[in-house]
C-alpha cells in the first residue's frame, strides 16, 4: 500500500549515530500500566514515527522525552531514556525537567499559540531564557519563522495576535516557537490531527526539511503520514513496541502479523 | 399546521412543545418573583431616603437632630476600612489561590486546607467579629481602630477571594501551561506569563465581589466595637510636611456606613428612618458601582485573552 520513492538515498548507507535510546522503560498512571518495557533507538537527524491504535501509549512515550509527565501528579516511570552525546538519563531524578525542555522542544496536537502577538509567541522561549536584546530576538524570531515556512506570510503582521492566523498557520507558528531556541530534538504529538490536507502537507514538507539539522520524533494516527515523513517507525500496541524498523521495511515487509494487520487496515 | 408533520408524530410534538412552554413560564415566574421583590424594596428605600440625600447629607457629621445628621464619618470610615481590607486580602487571597492551584502537592494536607478554605466562606460573619475581638484587640492590642476593622473584614473575604482565584485559574487551559513548560519555562514563569493573565478577569471579579460583600458587613464591626457616634474624621493619610505620609488614620476609632444605618434604624424617632434609608441608598450605589466596575473590567480584559 505504500509506494514511496527513496529521497536522497545515500546517507542511509553509513550507520547513523544515536540521539537517544529508550531502554526498559515502563510507565504507570497511578496503578494503570501505560508503557511496558519499551526499547527504542532514536537516530540523530532522522524522523522516528510512533504509530499504533488509540490508547497504545505512543503519546505517553513521546511525553517522556521532555518530562511532560512531571507536570501531573500520580504517575511514575522506571527505566532509562539516554540522551547522546551527553550520555545522561533524561528520566533521572537529578536531571532538572527544565534543562531537558531547554533542549527538547514539543509541538502539540492542537495548535496552542499564546494569546499574544505572533512575534511574542516565537520569542517566548528566548525570553524565558533571559534574552533581552532586541537585536538578538528580532534575528532569532525571523530565523525561526523562516524555518517554519511562515515568514513570508506574517512578516508584515508580526504584531497581530497569534490567534488571528489560520489553523495551519497557527501550527507552523507553534513550530517556529519550538525552533526559536535551537532545540536538538523536536517532538510532534499528532501535529496535523486538527488540520486540513493542504496544511498537513505543508507541515509534512517542513518535517523533512527539519531533519537536516534536528532529530524528530512524531506520534501519528495517520499511517500514510508515517510512511511519507519518517525514516524509522515503531508500531506500538497496549504499551509495548511490537515492531521497530526502517519505515520502508516495516510498511512493505512487516515481520509481525499484528503489524501487517494494522498497517493494512484489518485492525485498529 | 405544516406538511412536514406526520399524523402519527403530531401528538408527541404538541405535548413536548407544551412542556417547553410550561417550563419557560415557571422559570420566568421564579425570576420575576425575585427581581420584583428586590425592585420594590429598592424603590421603597429610594422614596424614603432620596429627600434626605444631598451634598449636606454626605458632608455632615451625625447629629441628635435627624434633619442635620449626615454620613461624612461613615463613608470616609467605610472607605478607609476598605483600603485596609483590600491591601490585606488581595495579596493574601490571590497568593494562596495561586499556590493551591499551581504549586501545592496533591496530598492529604492540601486536601484538608482546601476543604477548610471552602468551609470558611460559609462561616457567619459574627464569628469573624468575635475572633477578631479576641485576636486583634485583646492579643495584638490594635485597638478598636480602622486597622482592626479592615483586617477583620479581610479575614472575612479571604476565603471568597481564594475560591474565586482558584476557579479563575482552573479556566486557563492546560494546553497553555504545557505550551509554556515545553518552551522551557519554570513554574513561576508559566504562572506569571500565562496563568495569571489568563485568570485575571476572574480573579478581579472575585476581588470586587469580595470587597462588595465586605463593605456591607455590619455584625463583625459591631462585635469589634465600631463607634456609632463619630464627630471627627481620622487623620489624613497625606500630610503637607515631611514625612508626608501618616499612619495615624489606621489607629483612629471608626464608624462605617452599615453601622451608622444600624444605629439610626434602632432609634425610636421616625425621622432617623429616612436618614437610614438615604444611607442605605448610598451603600447600595457603592456596591452597584463596584459590581459594575467588576463587569466592565472583566469584559475589557477578556477581549485581550482568547485561547
Task: Give a concise summary.
The complex is a heterodimer of chains A (268) and B (307). In chain A, 34% of the residues lie in helices and 25% in strands. By secondary structure, chain A is of the alpha/beta class.
Question: Could you explain the architecture of this structure?
Answer:
With 268 residues, chain A is α/β, with parallel strands linked by helices. Chain A has ten helices and ten strands. Chain A has helices at residues 58-65, 97-103, 118-128, 134-147, 151-154, 167-179, 197-210, 223-229, 247-252, 257-263; strands spanning 18-29, 32-43, 47-51, 75-83, 88-89, 104-107, 185-189, 215-219, 232-237, 240-246. Chain A is globular and about 55 Å long. Chain B is mostly helical. Chain B has two domains: 7-51; 53-302, MetI-like (MetI-like fold, Orthogonal Bundle), CATH 1.10.3720.10. In chain B, 71% of the residues lie in helices and 0% in strands. Chain B is built from eleven helices and no strands. Chain B is globular. The model of chain B has no long low-confidence stretch (mean pLDDT 85). Classes of the chains: A alpha/beta (268), B mainly alpha (307). At the A-B interface, α2, α3 and α6 of A face α7 and α8 of B.
Keywords:
heterodimer, A: 268 residues, alpha/beta, Rossmann fold, 6-stranded mixed beta sheet, 4-stranded antiparallel beta sheet, 10 strands, 34% helix, 25% strand, disordered N terminus, B: 307 residues, mainly alpha, MetI-like fold, 2 domains, 71% helix, 0% strand
Low-confidence stretches of chain A: 1-12
CA gyration radius of chain B, whole angstroms: 25 Å
Write down the secondary-structure element order of chain B: HHHHHHHHHHH
Shape of chain A: globular
CATH class of the largest domain in chain B: Mainly Alpha
β-strand number of chain B:
0
What name does CATH use for the topology of chain A? Rossmann fold
Overall average residue pLDDT of chain B: 85
Classify the beta-strand content of chain A into a percent band. 25-35%
What oligomerization state is this entry in? heterodimer
Question: Kindly, what is the distance between the CA atoms of the first and last residues of chain B, rounded to a whole number of angstroms?
Answer: 45 Å
CATH class of chain A: Alpha Beta
Structural class of chain B: mainly alpha
Query: Biggest β-sheet of chain B: count, sense, barrel?
Result: none
CATH superfamily of chain A: P-loop containing nucleotide triphosphate hydrolases
Note the overall shape of chain B: globular
How helix-rich are the residues of chain B, as a percent range? over 70%
Helix content range of the residues of chain A, please?
25-40%
Roughly what fraction of the amino acids of chain B lie in strands?
Answer: under 5%
Number of domains of chain B: 2
Question: How large is the count of helical segments of chain A?
Answer: 10
